[in-house]
Specification:
This protein is an alpha+beta fold. The chain contains seven helices and 27 strands. Helix content is about 15%, strand content about 30%. α2 (about 110-120) crosses α3 (about 135-150).
């Protein structure tokens, strides 16, 4: 790669040469990224870039989740990819790869991860693959080869929806780099996890990428300190020499569980497994019954570093510490409505997380379509904070003539105090909605709805049919209380009641109206003894009853 700058005209040239699989004699292609600014040209095996003026980012592009994504175009290995708001019918996921991340190396090397992308990506979704590195062309050629090899004997159709751009992120000339860098990677498996080796006589530390073991298998975490590193062979057997040190062990010969268990029994402070030459970093995890054996020390995988191995072989003292260097975000999304979206935490290295986010895009689009259906809407909460023992409380007037409706849906959503997921509450908690329309009624403060918070995601949105519970609304003025556990961080709640007609017994048949609610059980801990605590309940149905649903 050659990067040249003309002092007189501020003209930049970027020329990158790489071997590609297409015919070398293909015709010249010209691809405009932003009008009258940047032009990409490709001929044979060479891509080049030139800019007529100082690059600028489109002013219309937003940089926060929910902002509308501006139009852009980028060259890809299969031709020009053009994004126009409202033209692309499905969602778009943008993934920026870097070879500096052990986590991303594993995502792209794992057969199960690649199979997930090929087989389970929703049909509505397209993915644009980029590289953050100077080696962008070789990166995307490798990524494309990985996907094509995986799709060869399965779902080839998906390849038409996967786009690989040889343009490095730093040369895109549009808004994408700004979003990737401003939405810096936070949370589990974000940033660049690294192992830092030092030894007497080395002028500089040796810093290499690492991949930590599954967070839900090994709960131990590396401390912010320097550890002594000791070679323990393959780590399959206990070794007294690793006590109070980090064990340096090779992959293979036994499972990751056996290695970590053996080193834990040897009182090691942790385990560093190095991949055998030519092999990628692997997702270190337990299998089957192994997962029920608690292990308290941390473990990570790295590539074999010759200078470290040589120092240990010659008996030199080697120390290792662990750090995470901040990085740009690796994944961003654009939903069907053209809004920028975060992609959530990737808890372990698999493309399944892209698929699940894409499924949510489809779900959310379907939900908004349902919300366009006719209904009488009563707003209860409009972006109200819910926290503490009180939760969120509001008293509202209900529409007259409730008997004219036989369907009640709860349009409920949970967002966060800030626009980023980082401001969202952690953990999964139950959210309950209670209603009281008449303090003297047996129905006062009965539960009308229940949901579960999304772990540190501001995307919770539900349309819940609670039509059988319409009798709880036994007055034209009702008080609604929405709450979760009092110690949870705040959520911002919105709730609309949607009254409509539906649930008919058949074409042209009479409409059924819920008219009574009977409480059968008061609840309790659901375990093997649950049924022993209750006896069958017998009750009489009014003669006019035509349907008795359970809720």
């Amino acid at each position: 790669m050659a990067l040249l700058r003309s002092q007189s005209s501020l003209l930049w040239f970027l020329v990158v040469a790489a071997h590609v699989t297409e015919a070398a004699e293909r015709p010249m292609k010209r691809m405009t990224l932003t009008e009258d600014e940047s032009v990409w040209e490709s001929k044979g095996d060479t891509f080049s870039f030139r800019s007529r003026k100082t690059s600028r980012v489109e002013a219309a592009a937003g940089s926060e989740p929910g902002d509308v994504a501006a139009a852009f175009r980028v060259p890809t290995l299969g031709g020009e990819f053009i994004y126009q708001p409202g033209v692309l019918k499905g969602p778009l996921v943008i993934h920026a790869f870097t070879n500096k991340s052990g986590f991303l190396e594993c995502i792209w090397s794992s057969e199960s991860s690649l199979s997930s992308l090929v087989q389970d990506l929703p049909d509505s979704t397209q993915v644009l693959f980029l590289s953050l590195d100077d080696s962008a062309i070789s990166d995307v050629l490798w990524m494309r080869d990985q996907v094509q090899r995986t799709a060869m004997h399965s779902k080839k159709e998906v390849l038409s929806r996967l786009h690989f751009s040889p343009v490095p992120v730093f040369a895109l000339g549009n808004w994408i780099p700004r979003v990737l860098y401003s939405w810096s990677c936070m949370g589990v498996n974000c940033g660049l996890s690294q192992a830092v080796f030092t030894s007497q006589g080395w002028k500089m530390p040796v810093i290499i990428k690492r991949l930590d073991a599954r967070y839900d298998w090994l709960m131990g975490r590396w401390a912010q300190t320097s550890y002594r590193l000791v070679d323990a062979g393959d780590g399959c057997d206990a070794s007294l020499s690793v006590a109070a040190a980090v064990a340096w062990v090779s992959a293979g010969s036994c499972s990751f569980f056996t290695k970590v268990q053996s080193m834990a029994k040897s009182n090691a402070s942790g385990v560093l497994v190095y991949a055998l030459p030519g092999n990628p970093l692997q997702d270190m995890n337990c299998v089957g019954d192994e997962c029920y054996s608690p292990l308290s020390i941390p473990a990570s995988m790295v590539h074999l570093e010759p200078s470290v191995a040589q120092a240990l072989r010659f008996g030199q003292l080697v120390n290792v510490s662990f750090q995470v260097t901040p990085s740009p975000n690796f994944f961003i999304g654009i939903d069907q409505q053209g809004a920028l979206a975060e992609m959530g935490w990737f808890l372990y290295p698999t493309f399944s997380f892209i698929n699940w986010q894409a499924q949510w895009f489809d779900f959310n689009m379907d939900l908004w379509t349902k919300l366009k259906s006719p209904a009488s809407v009563v707003s209860v909460f409009d972006k109200v904070q819910m926290q503490g023992d009180k939760g969120a409380v509001a008293t509202v007037d209900l529409p007259l003539g409730l008997l004219d409706f036989n369907t009640l849906e709860l349009d409920a959503s949970l967002s966060c105090p800030g626009r980023r997921d980082s401001s969202c509450a952690q953990w999964d908690h139950t959210v309950q909605l209670f209603v009281c329309c008449n303090p003297l009624s047996l129905y006062c403060n009965m539960e009308l709805g229940r949901w579960i918070t999304a772990f540190r995601r501001g995307i919770g949105h539900w349309l819940t049919d609670v039509s059988p519970l319409i009798p709880l609304l036994d007055s034209n003025k009702c008080t609604f209380t929405m709450k979760t556990v009092p110690w949870a961080m705040p959520w911002i709640v919105s709730l609309n009641l949607r009254f409509s007609l539906g649930n008919q017994t058949g074409d042209g048949a009479e409409k059924l109206h819920p008219f009574r609610v009977t409480s059968l059980y008061s609840g309790g801990t659901f375990d093997k003894n649950y049924n022993k605590n209750y006896q069958p309940v017998k009750f009489l149905l009014p003669a006019s009853t035509k349907k008795a649903p359970n809720t």
